[in-house]
Amino acid sequence: xxxxxxxxxxxxxxxxxxxxxxxxxxxxxxxxxxxxxxxxxxxxxxxxxxxxxxxxxxxxxxxxxxxxxxxxxxxxxxxxxxxxxxxxxxxxxxxxxxxxxxxxxxxxxxxxxxxxxxxxxxxxxxxxxxxxxxxxxxxxxxxxxxxxxxxxxxxxxxxxxxxxxxxxxxxxxxxxxxxxxxxxxxxxxxxxxxxxxxxxxxxxxxxxxxxxxxxxxxxxxxxxxxxxxxxxxxxxxxxxxxxxxxxxxxxxxxxxxxxxxxxxxxxxxxxxxxxxxxxxxxxxxxxxxxxxxxxxxxxxxxxxxxxxxxxxxxxxxxxxxxxxxxxxxxxxxxxxx
Length: 337
Prior knowledge:
Layout: E1 4-9, H1 13-25, E2 29-35, H2 40-48, E3 52-54, H3 57-62, E4 68-71, H4 78-87, E5 91-95, H5 102-114, E6 119-122, H6 130-140, E7 146-156, H7 174-189, E8 194-203, E9 210-219, E10 224-230, E11 232-243, E12 246-250, E13 262-269, E14 272-279, H8 282-295, H9 304-323, E15 327-328
Parallel strand pairs: 1-2, 1-4, 2-3, 4-5, 5-6, 7-10
Antiparallel strand pairs: 7-11, 8-9, 8-15, 9-10, 11-12, 12-13, 13-14
Helix pairs in contact: 1-8, 4-5, 5-9, 7-9
């Protein structure tokens, strides 16, 4: 087998506009089927030229010709359908956040491992080569010793009424929707896990979801990091690494596709600044990476353990937001002073 045959559970916008086109562009993947709850799948299949359409998710999972599935369902449904897909031996690319808490994520990873099924949480942004370049620049010592990382991901969310991102019971809110990207970026760029978390949020009075969150992290390597996420501010998807000798700014960190796939990396030291323009198609790279992991029986670069660790930080953010306390994630169990 040289090509992974993909099925998609849902006609969600991200599937139709991003993942399905990426599967078609990928050199080692093909789109074989799409499913919905009802007849919508037929319209999507006709529009996107997908060979098979199913009116239930279960029917797609029963199709022996499907190797892997993409799950872009509402957050609270991820665990249920990961389990059902794994039971039928399908490899799984699941939209972020993987689940609503670390415990559920851990159970999902364990369930997939028991059934020899590969699982990856879909943080597509990480496959853009700009981030490898950032780590390379940090390691070179060009900006000196890293002292701080800042990250922001937000957009001015219009027409909120009835949107699942405003439904608390479905895993709505800015932290789950966009804040999780900053958590992931801080962990991967600085190559260290958060040890302490302090968070504050603005909560929508009607729905109870966080519409903005402001978070301070202290990493195990001693480097502090700050991030914000919001439904109430202008479109930003950026991070900055600050060192003793200079800075690295990444203005299209999470959505370089909004800049034609170009990820500018701006390095400033003293009075000198340069911009490196790095190209990459994030969704296509994600699909090709996961398909290659299946074909080669290799572990995806983004592991299940890392997905659990990311969710553990989100859990701590929610606890801190609710209690006003600084939360310890230290592996040695040390208390927050």
